[in-house]
TrEMBL record, chains A, B:
Organism from which the protein derives: Leifsonia soli
Lineage: Bacteria, Bacillati, Actinomycetota, Actinomycetes, Micrococcales
Protein name in UniProt: Alpha/beta hydrolase
InterPro entries listed in its UniProt record: AB_hydrolase_fold
Length: 247, 247
């Protein structure tokens, strides 16, 4: 399986943005113009909550920053989101979530499992195939890091994919109990961002997850503000984390 | 009142280290060789738990890093520590602490108050006098930041001393309830370091203190490890915090 490129855009900031499909899954690859077969670059996987076209401005911003540090970035659509066919269990769980939130009820562990685990189970093998396909390109050489907001996918990838050597995680989503258990077996270096007043996030769950990670190097950086209020300097600190572990 | 210099040492790394007394209080001032009346430098106050000669290697390390960024650093001995005359209430509280820890009992709020508050009440006016005296030197111009491990002194200084524009705090000491209340009125930018597994520290108390701060810009950086295990990159991140707010 390889990346079938469907468009190529040379941006003014020296980054090449290519859309592709991988066995029908839409994705985007960003490479610094400097990347070449004689100077292959490391790869950052850009995680997200689903909907890569809607997320494109923010994903592209992160990719441009990574390219400035000499790294390629790749993202793929999640199962059942964006232009991909709906996944019935996920549709049902999301409808239940809307009803639960509208009723002002707590989001219980069963609903969290139904919202998150099918996506993790579906997505992780696809992200691994994407790593295979990206590393088959002569201008991309590894190592690989995960960076992103779907923290459960990051945990599972950190555990399942030995080519992922570091992860920058954004603590802003529901965390199933099984993922909390898997986190104990994660040993790669981690940089976890937590927005202290994230309205959609359970702060204690994020602290518990950070505590659970088995990694010998793990950093939690909490900043004041809501879900989208990550300060610029936090992005810089995260970029330095990747530079330390990918170069 | 002015700094009476008692020694001057031009270190090989381009830093001038001068010991002084201020109305009988011993202290150390480090300035980058570049500091001059025509190019006065900002000032970082180096907080510590008491005993500046014992702490000298670590304090000097922080000062050399600050000098590389173009900042002077200053520290003074705390009341009743190092070569200063003992303070009876503090001696008594420390003896009670040793007995409490030896017995395996919890350190209650009354003991925390007795251990910390007399030191804060005594030290903060002295640190303010030291700021006066340091800023009277032509090569030091401000602004001023507090950096250090005696977090309650940092909180009180942040509140009491308008020339302190930012604080980098090391969450590793007992926190009296009155300091937690004062923290709500602190509004300067903060960078709080927490060692996640600090054996001598109450993690929840540190998180509560971080939550209490009224500052619009506050960052908590937690790293795996014990009290003295702060990783080098955390020092770099803290240095960048000071550079953002002092330049």
């Amino acid at each position: 399986m390889h990346l079938e490129f469907t468009s190529e855009h040379h941006k003014s900031d020296g980054v090449i943005e290519r859309r592709f499909t991988l066995d029908g899954i839409p994705g985007i690859l960003w490479t610094p113009a400097s990347a070449s077969p004689s100077a292959p670059v490391p790869l950052i996987l850009l995680g997200h909550p689903g909907g890569i076209e809607q997320m494109h401005p923010r994903l592209a911003g992160r990719a441009v920053r990574a390219a400035a540090d000499g790294f390629a970035s790749l993202t793929i659509e999640l199962p059942g989101t964006g232009d991909r066919p709906p996944v019935p269990v996920t549709e049902e769980a999301r409808a239940d979530l809307r009803r639960t939130l509208a009723a002002g009820d707590p989001v219980g562990p069963d609903l969290v499992d139904r919202l998150v685990l099918p996506l993790v189970d579906g997505a992780v093998p696809e992200w691994r195939s994407a790593v295979d396909a990206a590393l088959a390109l002569p201008e991309i050489g590894g190592p690989v890091a995960y960076s992103g907001g779907f923290i459960s996918i990051g945990v599972r990838l950190a555990l399942a994919e030995p080519r992922v050597v570091a992860a920058g995680l954004f603590a802003g989503s529901y965390i199933p109990a099984v993922i909390l258990e898997e986190a104990r077996r994660v040993t790669i270096p981690l940089h976890v961002l937590l927005q202290w007043d994230d309205e959609g996030n359970d702060r204690q769950a994020a602290l518990d997850l950070f505590d659970a990670f088995g990694s010998a190097e793990k950093t939690l950086q909490a900043n004041l503000g809501g879900h989208r209020g990550v300060p610029a300097f936090a992005g810089e600190d995260a970029a330095r984390f990747f530079a330390r572990h990918l170069r």
